[in-house]
Amino acid sequence: MSTALIILAAGQGTRMKSDRPKVLHEVAGAPLLVHAMKAGAALSPDRTVIVAGHGADEVASAAQAHDDSVAIALQSEQKGTAHAVAQARDALAGFDGDALVLYGDTPFISPETLARMAEARKSHDVVVLGFEAADPGRYGRLVMEGGRLDRIVEFKDATEAEKAITFCNSGVIAAAAPRLFDLIDAVGNDNASGEYYLTDIIGLARDRSLSATAIACDEAETLGVNSRVDLSAAEAAFQARARTAALDDGVTLVAPDTVHFAHDTVIGRDAVIEQNVVFGPGVTVESGAQIRAFSHLEGCHVARGAVIGPYARLRPGAELAEDTRIGNFVEVKNAVIDEGAKVNHLSYIGDAHLGAGTNIGAGTITCNYDGVMKHHTEIGRNVFIGSNTMLVAPVTIGDDAMTGSGSVITRDVPEGALAVARADQAVKPGMARKLFEILKFKKAKRQKEAG
Ligand code: UD1
Ligand code: MG
Question: Is 328 found in the same domain as 260?
């Protein structure tokens, strides 16, 4: 069955108290909308339509940055969820597969749940995703008649008896796309909010002798974000799940609660992640690598046997091959570091390539930026860079070369050569003692003058 996703993302999210559209607030480094898109991707949709309104341009570019094949439908005035879905009609013209409606602010619907909905669709015309609410609050209530869903009643329009129902509407609905739009055409706005409710299609389906049902999922999956408190709860829920998943996959987390994952972090089994490690987006860590305490990684790849940190920072484009070592207070950006190379202390390696077996001494800096442009540093195999070397890019250091400590290297160093670029040492016998005397005399004089 071909599927189209319709993701509702036009609302303003007033309670976020934000200039940013609600669905662009992030959990685990990705916008809520992207989480919803990733959830829907479990059904391998043929089409995805994002219904945008508030901040539509920003919403569209965030959606298209994640998947450039999505269509954007504009809902310039928010007249309710049925009206929102109706805006997707043109984008889905001629599409006769299934449509699945998701909310852009509801990030955690699981693939298993969507698979169960698809299964239920085989025997029902309309399938709604419900959940048993611990606190039903203002959710729409699902009125079941046995296994059949009779109607959905919005809280504002519910009788006391209906309000007592705890089986609630998550908002996720599946039906054949042409049927969905047909039903929506019949939805009116004669209700307590004066809105076009998508939920009304269930009563309309019943009136047309179509069959509707609801399946239940865990309430945690339906967690929607309306406020910053909800956003922090969503982040906490994501992190808790990511930690458990990593442990289940065979990753050692020494102190799980202190590790922060991104939505796309990938870690191989037998990797060890120590305390207080932060993963930004785009990180892969291979089996058996070790990320030591207080390291911060984003957009990088760490191969087997590498040891990173403690206190290391890997920025986008850091590619660390097997058995490399990145030590404390080392920053690596856009640099490929080949097998067994070591950068152990207090260094900046940016826009560079380090050959296998090369050792970078403490305090080394690739001076990659001239104030206007970035330049590349190329370092060969088995090179020894002396401590506190400044490598002024663009510059190339050949295989098996060495630089003297404290050198400022501005010209290429050929293979096997030693480059020393610093002032010669002068030694003046007795001069230090003399200097101390002069300085002490000056200090005493100053104190006397000050009284
Ligand atoms: C909706 C459901 C309710 C359900 C609840 C679950 C309806 C009528 N009610 O209520 O049964 O229990 O969600 O959270 O569907 N949106 C638009 N355009 C609009 C209106 C809404 O894009 O014109 C988007 C919102 O941005 C949001 C989603 O649709 O992502 C739901 O809208 P919201 O106003 O939060 O609906 P609820 O009143 O919470
Ligand atoms: Mg809501």
Answer: yes
Indicate the top mutation candidate among 6, 32, 35, 103 to test ligand 1's pocket, ranked by most ligand atoms within 8 A of CB. 103
Active site residue 35: no
Domain membership of residue 35 (yes or no) is yes
Nearest atom, ligand 1, residue 13 CA: 26
For a pLDDT cut of 70, what percent of the chain falls above it? 100
Q: Give CA–CA dist 370/393, Å, rounded.
A: 9
pLDDT of 12: 85
Q: What is the pLDDT of residue 327?
A: 98
Instruction: State phi, psi for 413 to the nearest 5 degrees.
Output: -115, 120
Indicate if 157 and 236 belong to the same structural domain: no
Q: Write out the residue range of the structural domain in which residue 134 sits.
A: 3-222
Nearest CA to ligand 1 atom 38: 139
Task: Indicate whether 64 and 173 sit together in one domain.
Answer: yes
User: What is the rounded distance in angstroms from the CA atom of residue 143 to the CA atom of residue 159?
Assistant: 12
The Cβ-side half-sphere exposure at 256, using a 13 Å CA radius, reads 14
Q: Is the CB of 140 under 6 A from ligand 1?
A: yes
Ligand 1 contact, 141 CB (< 6 A) = no
213 plus 143 within the same structural domain: yes
Q: What is the pLDDT of residue 1?
A: 80
Nearest to 306 by CA among 318, 294, 315: 318
Q: Does 256 lie in the same domain as 157? A: no
239-284 pLDDT, tens digit each: 999 999 999 999 999 999 999 999 999 999 999 999 999 999 999 9
Position 151 in a domain: yes
> For residue 116, what pLDDT is reported?
98
Q: What is the pLDDT of residue 451?
A: 84
> For residue 59, which ligand has an atom nearest its CA?
1
Q: What is the pLDDT of residues 422-438, one digit of tens each?
A: 999 999 999 999 999 99
Q: How far apart are CA 244 and CA 279, in angstroms?
A: 16
Is the minimum distance from the CB of 197 to ligand 1 under 6 angstroms?
yes
CA distances from 61 to 21, 183, 373 (A): 12, 31, 28
Of 345, 353, 375, 376, which residue is the catalytic one? 345
Ligand 1 near 7 CB (within 6 A): no
